[in-house]
């Protein structure tokens, strides 16, 4: 099962997504007819839900192939279901990571597959360079599994807008300074 599972709503992106929906609806000829019948008390009135938001579910599992954690994530619009890779880059990937992430390998650093735990279609940050990146960061120091996971989440999570609270790093740093955690 997952080492870690996190779900959250992205309200900013939802408002942006909702604006796109509103623009599409305004171009619809049926909407023009609805606007003309606003005075009719029996007319069906469509309103755009301004609370439309995106929900992202992240899960972390160990890759049996690469022997490193893998970050899986599903991005959904609360009214329209799962969204595609373009919405992932627009709403989850910060500007400073987009170009680099799209240019990793043949297909980019974000891939699409079935979740190994649930079987649901999902995106994931491809783990092929994770071990090398973690070696570059951690060097030859012996680090605890907790510290490894925190470093990894900082490295991989940031590229898809998953940020860990600073307090978590401070707590982990203090624990590593205790005699029990010193080698």
Overall description:
It is a single chain. With 183 residues, the protein is an alpha+beta fold. The protein has one domain (4-181): Yope Regulator, Chain: A (2-Layer Sandwich), CATH 3.30.1460. Helices cover 39% and strands 20% of the residues. It contains 7 helices and 6 strands, in the order βααβββααββααα. It has helices spanning 11-26, 29-36, 85-91, 95-102, 130-138, 145-157, 166-176, and strands spanning 4-10, 54-62, 69-77, 81-82, 110-114, 121-125. Residues 12-48 are annotated as: Disordered. Keywords: Autophagy, Protein transport, Transferase, Transport, Ubl conjugation pathway. It comes from Aspergillus wentii DTO 134E9.
What is the strand and helix layout of this fold?
Layout: E1 4-10, H1 11-26, H2 29-36, E2 54-62, E3 69-77, E4 81-82, H3 85-91, H4 95-102, E5 110-114, E6 121-125, H5 130-138, H6 145-157, H7 166-176
Antiparallel strand pairs: 1-2, 2-3, 3-4, 3-6, 5-6
Helix pairs in contact: 5-6
């Amino acid at each position: 099962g997952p080492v870690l599972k996190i779900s959250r709503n992205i309200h900013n992106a939802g408002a942006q997504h909702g604006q796109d929906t509103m623009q599409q609806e305004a171009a619809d000829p049926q909407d023009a007819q609805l606007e003309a019948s606003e005075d009719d008390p029996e007319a069906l009135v469509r309103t755009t839900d301004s609370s439309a938001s995106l929900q992202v579910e992240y899960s972390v599992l160990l890759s049996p192939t690469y022997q490193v954690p893998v970050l899986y994530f599903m991005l959904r619009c609360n009214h329209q279901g799962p969204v595609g890779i373009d919405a992932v880059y627009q709403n989850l990937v910060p500007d400073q990571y987009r170009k680099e992430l799209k240019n990793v390998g043949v297909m980019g650093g974000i891939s699409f597959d079935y979740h190994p735990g649930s079987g649901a279609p999902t995106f994931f940050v491809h783990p092929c360079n994770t071990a090398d990146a973690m070696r570059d960061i951690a060097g030859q120091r012996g680090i605890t599994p907790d510290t490894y996971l925190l470093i990894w989440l900082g490295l991989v999570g940031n590229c898809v807008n998953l940020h860990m609270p600073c307090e978590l790093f401070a707590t982990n740093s203090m624990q590593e300074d205790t005699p029990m955690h010193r080698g």
